[in-house]
Amino acid sequence: MHDTRTARFEAVYKATYGQITAYAARRCDSPQDAADVVADTFTVAWRRVDELPEGEQATLWLFGVARKVLANHRRVDGRRTGRPWSGDDRPGHLRQSRNPRLDAEMADLYGGRPDSGVELAAIAQAFRSLPDDDRELLSLVAWEGLGREEIATVLGLTRNAVRVRLHRARKRFARALAEADLPITTTSRLLPAERPR
């Protein structure tokens, strides 16, 4: 029984590690914070290995876990310090031993980011001005490449609710980009069309 559970976890880990790592790296302020989110996400997956869905549903399930782990880290640290979460000063019950290999992988991901020019800075500022829910929806489409049905699974919403919220999020982002005097071509490039599902 234990060997079956271990094999199941290892298979899911190998299949999803890159996607979960990228998810965390795009949403954290530092490689160390992202490494902590990845580690905690797979810790939850190991504890709940019997609940892991099959196939692509496992990836969506793990996106949902990573989202909750990230929110919990931010909430705990926000209550403790009154400022955004930073993995290096978390309370003892959340602190884990550092994994140098994971930290190095995260640093490589962060190192690969494009240089931020004036336009990129303006886009980033417009994106940060959006509500958290809008940013997450747009990120799941643009960064993770998910369709409405997959996003509904990750967020625990209906497909129709995702459709409506995504439409509104795109409009708010387009408005924020227009207020930043960014050309319409930028808007269309950053608001990808949904994949049919």
Describe the structure.
The protein is built from nine helices and no strands. It is an all-alpha fold and about 200 residues long. α1 (about 1-25) runs antiparallel to α2 (about 30-45), α2 packs across α4 and α8 runs antiparallel to α9. The longest helix is centred in the N-terminal third of the chain and has 26 residues, at about 1-25. The chain has helices spanning about 1-25, 30-45, 55-80, 100-110, 120-130, 130-140, 150-155, 160-180, 185-190.
SSE inventory with pairings:
Blueprint: H1 2-27, H2 31-47, H3 56-81, H4 100-111, H5 118-128, H6 132-142, H7 148-155, H8 159-179, H9 184-190
Helix pairs in contact: 1-2, 1-3, 2-3, 2-4, 3-7, 5-8, 6-8, 7-8, 8-9
In short:
The chain is mostly helical and 197 residues long. It has 9 helices and no strands.
Low-confidence blocks of residues: 85-98, 112-116, 184-197
Q: Overall 3D geometry?
A: globular
Q: Which value, in Å, is the CA radius of gyration? A: 18 Å
| H/E element sequence | HHHHHHHHH
